[in-house]
Specification:
By secondary structure, the chain is an alpha/beta fold. It folds into four domains: about 180 residues, Lysozyme-like; about 55 residues, Muramoyl-pentapeptide Carboxypeptidase, domain 1 (Orthogonal Bundle), CATH 1.10.101; about 35 residues, no CATH class; about 55 residues, Muramoyl-pentapeptide Carboxypeptidase, domain 1 (Orthogonal Bundle). The chain has 15 helices and eight strands. The strands form two sheets. It has a six-stranded mixed β-sheet, with helices on both faces. Strand 4 and strand 5 form a beta hairpin. Helix 4 packs across helix 6. It is globular, with a radius of gyration of 24 Å. The structure holds zinc ion. The site of zinc ion (ZN) has 4 residues, from loops.
């Protein structure tokens, strides 16, 4: 299900640029807040579009000038008129790609990796109007869908740090919110496995990853960083969206991935070894070990001979790709006057637009996909 909620971007409501761009994260939750501002008829936005935009601006000013934050602390604002507005800039693009931006709403590092939605009002006893509720449901449906978040992971601010937020009434309605969202998602909900998941299913995942040659570390039923890296390596290898979340597409690809028939060659054949370990979580360790075995003069000769040749990444690079090669691409684009947005190693809409502009300027087929020709041109020009 695509992202369908109607959200006014920070650019559209006239936000000031952030003092600094925020780190891209892998969200696990949605965090619901209230703004603790007056309810109707004294609500700040007065339920109008103009009022909503002004409210977003005043929150941004308070967070940047008052608290000294880099930008708005929340990711989204939902006003009494049911207008949805982007908070921290870049949140909307990131969410549409299944990611989020580290923000400052939850008072907790883990919570700040997930999208925070500020709902205008004080919901201790006061009940949210239907318009605002429906917008909250719309936004949660879109976020759950694009970020593969189970509706059970819709939480309140107070689940992350000591606070009254989002008010007793709104907190008591989170179960209704989860079931409304689940109903709207319908058949598109799945039992996703992601960092933090535990249990028998995770154990099965770890076993299959290991069998297919992507070592997740201990087979313990806990989806930690080792499992995450193994899943990402597998997804990259299969050119899937490398979001580290195991959905039905990733399961299917894992099940149909051929089980390596033999161990890597026991006789040292460097090229085969490198190909075998490339992209695996322990690649760096393997290569570092190998390097220690090679004499210094040999390494120097090696470096002399090869260091000035352009390196070749896994090509093509395209929307959804992540990693150091994408970062190198973004840096080269920027150096040549094409703005890819944040230099974050994530191939998003900004990077794609910059690639297309670059390709047009060089007379290369402008498909936004970095194949060998575009890669060579961007690195040599
Ligand atoms: Zn809050």
């Amino acid at each position: 299900m695509p992202f369908t909620a109607s959200v006014i971007s920070a650019k559209e409501w006239g936000a000031k640029p952030p003092k600094q761009w925020s780190e891209i994260t892998r969200p696990q939750y949605i965090v619901v807040h209230h703004t603790a501002t007056p309810n109707s008829p004294n609500d700040v936005s007065k339920g109008t579009l103009a009022g909503a935009k002004n409210f977003a601006k005043s929150i941004q000013t308070a967070h940047m000038d008052g608290f000294g934050w880099v930008d708005s602390g929340h990711n989204f604002l939902n006003t009494t008129g049911g207008f949805l507005l982007e908070g921290r800039q870049g949140s909307l693009d990131a969410i549409k790609q299944g990611r989020c931006l580290r923000s400052a709403h939850a008072g907790n590092p883990k919570g700040n990796e997930s999208p925070g939605i500020e709902n205008e009002g004080t919901f201790t006893t006061y009940q949210m109007n239907a318009q605002q509720w429906n917008s909250l449901v719309d936004l949660c449906v879109s976020i759950c869908s694009s970020c593969k978040i189970d509706p059970d992971n819709i939480k309140g601010h107070r689940d992350f740090s000591p606070t009254q937020c989002p008010g007793d009434w709104l907190y008591s309605q989170l179960s209704r919110l989860r079931s409304d969202v689940r109903q709207r998602l319908g058949a598109s909900t799945e039992d996703y496995l992601r960092e933090g998941s535990t249990g028998q299913k995770v154990k099965e995942l770890q076993q299959i990853l290991k069998a297919k040659g992507f070592n997740p570390g201990p087979i313990d039923g806990v989806f930690g960083s080792g499992t995450l890296q193994a899943v990402i390596s597998f997804q990259k290898y299969q050119r899937l969206n490398a979001d580290g979340v195991v959905d039905s597409i990733t399961w299917k690809a894992l099940n149909s991935f051929p089980t390596p028939k033999e161990e890597p060659p026991s006789t040292v054949n460097l090229l085969d070894s490198y190909k075998f370990y490339r992209g695996l979580p322990h690649q760096d360790q393997a290569i570092a070990w190998l390097q220690e075995q090679v004499s210094k003069p040999t390494l120097e000769q090696f470096s002399q001979k090869w260091r000035n040749l352009p390196s070749q990444p896994f090509l093509p690079l395209q929307a959804g790709a992540v990693g150091s090669e994408v970062k190198q691409l973004q840096q080269r684009l920027q150096q040549q006057g094409f703005n890819p947005g944040a230099i974050d190693g994530v191939f998003g809409a900004g990077t794609k637009a910059a690639v297309i502009a670059f390709q047009k300027s060089k007379g290369i087929l402008a498909d936004g996909i970095v194949g060998e020709k575009t890669w060579a041109t961007v690195n040599l020009s």
